[in-house]
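Standup notes
- HV: blocked on the assembly model, inputs below
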Amino acid sequence: MIVVDSRDEAGERPFEEVFYPTDRVPFVEWREFSGAKPTVALTAAVTVLAFVTGLSNLSQAQPVVAGPLAGVLPMAETFVRFAGVLFAFPLGIVTFGLRRRKRLAWLAATALLPGLALLPLTTGRTTEIPLLLLILVTFPLLVWNRERFEQTLDLSSFQIASLTSILGVGLYGTVGSYGLRGQFIGLDGWGDAIYYVIVTIATVGYGDITPTTAEAKLFSLSVILFGTGAFTVAIGALIGPAIESRMAAAFGTMTASELSLLEDHVVVLGYGDVTESFLERVGDETDLVVVTPDADAASRLTDQGIEVLTDDATDESALEDARVDVASGVAVAGDDDAENVLAVLAARNVNPDVRIVAVANEETHVGKLDAVGADEVIDLRAIGGQLLGASVLNGSADGTARDDLLGVSVTGDRSDGSDDAARNAEGT
Amino acid sequence: MSTTDGTGSQQMLASALLLAFVGSGGVVLVGFFFPSFVGQALGGQTWLVLALVFFGSGLGYLAALPYERIRPDVSSESSLLRIRRGSVRAVLSDIVSVHDPVTLGLPILVFTLYFGFQFTFPGTTAAVVDGLTNSVLRGLGPVLLGTVLLSVGYCAVLLFSAWGDVKLGGEDVEPTYTYPTYFALVFTAGIAAGIVFWGPAEALFHYRQPPPYFDVAAGSEAAIGAALVYALFHWGISAWSAYAVVGIPIAYFVFERGAPLRVSAILTPFLGVDGLDSSWSRLVDTLAVFATIGGVATSIALVSQQFLAGVEYQWGVPPGGLGPVLFVGGLAAVYVLSAVSGLHRGIRRIAGLTVVLFGLFALLLLVVGPRSFIAERAPTALGAYVVNFVPMSLYATGSWVTEWTVWNWAWWFSWAPFAGMFLAALSRGRRLRTVAFTSVVATSAATGVWFLVFGGTSLSIQHSGRADVLAAIAERGGSEAVAGFPLLSALPLGDLLLFLFLALIVVFMVTSADTSTLIAAILASRRGVAPSRGSIAIWGAFQAAVALAVLLVGGAETLQALAVLTGAPFAILALLSLSGLSLALYREERGQDHTSIVRQAFDRLPEVQTHHDVEPPDRKQ
């Protein structure tokens, strides 16, 4: 509470305002720099840098191979020429997966980053030192935050089936064409077999490898049919849900996977007269989900970029979808006090510990809301009346009374609000 | 409303800076990776400007980011708005009314007079100031040497005696700044870009012309040792003690006696807290403002010239007539933003970045440099430093000592008012022992390692003939500015080291200039008035104006000599304050239950003592 002290003595010791603005100033805000978000950002930076470095290597007629690993690594020149770009593409997908906190993406990243670190160690060029340094920073952070990337991939059975069939066709084609290599022109080993299958499935068909016997021709036809079929189905299965979720979001309903990412957010139950101004005040500071059965309100809020779950706010299963169990607070702000009581009860059932702040539209309902488990009840009419009185009596100090009331009532539902409340109280 | 406006414009500034940072960074990155495609398309000057925009916007972005732990301050936002909206006249009267007329007016008058003389009679002014400086430094040389040695001794006393146990602000006050923050702020405020330029150069200069204390031949094997020892000596505990002996008395009288935070607080034992309104204390504060602005502004001007001279030497990019002016302008924009944003935002973040870059550079240099040479020479030099410390401190014969050691001590003392006061202001909740340890031992350990690594590398490269750095210096008229370039080019990863080297010059200059701006604004404000953001910005602009005037009118060295001259009175003031502090500590803290660190160490070892008591026969054998 040094903030309060320095203001009291502002006349005498002004330098404290300059030198002691808060009671603790650390060297680095570790939480800001060590969480999951910086990890994702750093991985993205590694991806970009790997791509640029890779392009730089590709653009050289003769790749430089002068690093400490140059002698150890087989095919060092080929590796140096292509590694940067070829690592960058999967890393891009991995970054996307990390953003959604996927476990599989984390595993892939821990495998890809050390592989990518081989590149600067092989070339030994000055221009690749930044990449190495960045990887050296990113990798420990990735390991440190391993528990933050726990989302399973959640593939539907259809998606699993289509991915498996692609893999199956690939195996079938490769092994089969290798086995039949005597009946092909220009197919000599495993490398040729893989090349042939991919060229065939992609319907490119250069024609440098051609089947000569009926058996080989039939085999090739089957690869084309199964391969293109599996490929098409897989694309539909993988891309379709993404488009679906976009459409659903456009209609004001969050998908289950989007909701599952929420944490430490504030859930607003019901839509009433105070909701808009409440959202205006709190909107920028924390993640929000509004649960309301009112479809008009839902589409309006969605237009403003606020997440909405169009569902009954008194229904426990809807609250579970809105992740009340991991929310930092619940604001019950409907126009109907009976609904509000039910919503408080439902929220309390889902999460016995969460802080619940409820709005009472009638003064006589304050006690009831309190009794069913609201931590704080805001009586709208009483506040309005007090404001009116304060404003009439104390016209010159306009705003302070209002700020005071607003400060206490709004900041009260944030876990770190006590400081602000104290400041506001001090300010009057 | 004012809050939302203020944060809105701050966010806009932050995102504009981020855009400039990412944009220029992208172009620099492309040039770095594809020199053959892009390198020739843009001229050298464009690259220089892009690189500087990259540094500057990055640092500015750090400063403009909001501090996550506190809300934007409502009162200061509104004052900023008021200044923005008021007429010029109202603004000026506002600013004059919160300032002390003497401390505001006198330095401005002196600087104006100086530039007037310099402009009309450049030769005479330079001759007069040089003559004055020479006679003062020669006359007061022994006094300065003695003061510095005494300061070191006093810091040792504070470190080991019971007085070191005194906690500033009372036993129950906890320090606001965590130790790494505290160290970073103290270290980077007290040192400007000099450490970067002199890192490779100082030892080389002593190698070319060995100090007379060591009777060795120039350029010989023995001269290497002498050069390293003297580099350590000039940047070691003696130098840093100058800040401590000004800062610690201020801190004690401010936090224990309630004196106002200004340099004149060191007069408390003689005038009393209520007597600090007297003209004596105003004189001290005015002198401090003059020393601060003069010292830092000339450093800014000289560093800008040296930076561009180095770039011209290395890449053949001519700075042009406008180059230094633009450079100073950009530097000023960054440090004013940093100072205005507040101690916990810009100043802290840039200080942290500086320390990290400093450590990274030293580490990299150690990896690619001549490790065995340094490993062999450093312990010897350290040993010689310890053994010869007292005789070197008292060695006062010859003009070499006046030119190097005495000038150096006067220089450190001229920076002591602002560095010391900054140290004092940050030290609430720390014990005197910790303050002395941080400001003398920890900081000089950092500079010591730097000079051993960087100086050792340059000596090794020069002595083995891998690069002739001394010839490059001589070619440029003996300027230390170019020493780093041929040296770093001769090492592996030279490009990266050079890039870091240039970045270090910029950040070290910014971290000193923003702090000095803040301190000057506090010193010039009326007692009891915290400097507003507007007044901090004005002091930053004034400092930049002095730097620009020096560049345009000339005579940077002369003005620097004038500022360094103020070191002499501050050395004498430091002597006074030390006796006053001793008296106060003797009177006030005698009855208190303070224990020295030596006693504490003994108290921790009861087993050892009982062990000896119980089994004496073992020892007899």
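- HV (later): unblocked. The first helix of chain B runs from residue 2 to 33. Chain B has a mean pLDDT of 84.
- Next: hand off to the docking folks.
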